[in-house]
Design goal:
heterodimer, A: 168 residues, mainly alpha, 74% helix, B: 274 residues, alpha+beta, 6-stranded antiparallel β-barrel, 4 helices, 12 strands, 37% helix
Chain lengths: 168, 274
Amino acid sequence: MRRVLLWSAVILTALLLQSTIFAQIRLAGAKPDLIYLVTIALAYLEGPSSGAIAGFAGGMAEDFLLNQPKGITALTLTLLGYAVGLLRSYVASPSPFLPVLIVGGGTSVGVLFFGLVTFLLGEPVGSAAYLVRVALLTGVYNAILTPLIFPIIRRVVDASRTRRVYRW
Amino acid sequence: MALSRRTRSTRVLVFVLVMVSLLTITVDYRGGQSGPLELAGKAGLTIVGPMQAAVSKVVRPVGSFFSAVIHLSSLESQNKALKQRLAEANAELATTTTAVQQNEQLRKLLQLQQRLGISGPTATVIAQSLSNFEWTITIDRGSSAGVKTDMAVVSGDGLVGHVSKVSDHWSIVTLLIDPSSSVAGRLVTTGDTGLVVGERTQDMQMQLVSPGAKVDLNESVVTAGFTGSLYPPGITIGAVSHVYRSNGSLAETVAVRPAVDFSSLQFVTVVTSP
């Protein structure tokens, strides 16, 4: 229960910050995407099933604030959360740069996938070059933000894990 | 054994979530503007709108700071011109606050309304689009103020876009530069008309109906306002920034730079009556 509340709070905060402060920071045609960052961070820390759930919830929340066919972000982030969670169980490196790399790469792949699905549904996404550029830039911006935001999410996850154990 | 069962349950979970997402895409695609999901979207806007308004109030200066840092290079080139202006503005400096800027924007808006004889509720911009593939803003007026889908939205500088989603007190406006936006435009001097289509961060493209039209740089483009059009006539869209010369083409294309600076919009008017 505590976990659900804390995670919802994280996702809602990300959504609000994304639509107000980060929406203004558009550099070279792209902006960071906090929802992707939060999904990847939660998946990285908590594994594939938690990652998929977090991605689905965040994606649905974002979809319902957009005009596009709803569900594309949810689909993208569900798969992304699952993939990152799986990847985490195969990579065992204590390097502090690992989250930065995974967030950057994951975001780029996620945005590309999102663009591809949107394109397949016949919605305007622009040229392939534009899509690749936005995907790469968003990945880089998210990677830059990771050292700031990842520790906060790790702290929230740790707080949501603590449970009292009763023995009798 | 325990591990494999866990892996399997994770796979089932992901499968179910993916299916729900696909179902949502399908239902939404079929439902269009009146589907059940559109209603859910409106409900979502009703809940999140007030929160966005509150957060926006707090973080606008922070965001403005960062966006200023980002645009540093272009600011540098303006530096010289601004230094000259600074001397003139020194006297006014004491009163140059956000309130004055807002006043200015609102006054321009009012002038535009009087000039074109349009009226409607004035709204504050509280949020911008989340996605990199959509150019929208959220405003703090909705159906309770008479706002309906497809109404035109203007600012003091010119046309902003049209309303694409409405809830009780909040609406989402699709900007002119969104690729899904197209407006019938008219060149002021020659009167030639064409369709102005959004091109994201680049200048908008105006496809001229008649080839061989004489087009000058920096010529103003206004809404044509055909009967049944979303937009009332005579609202400034932008200025011609480039003319593409192509021989033998059936329609000529010119680039149009929007008159409105979409990144610093604060107040807009929804045109409820032309």
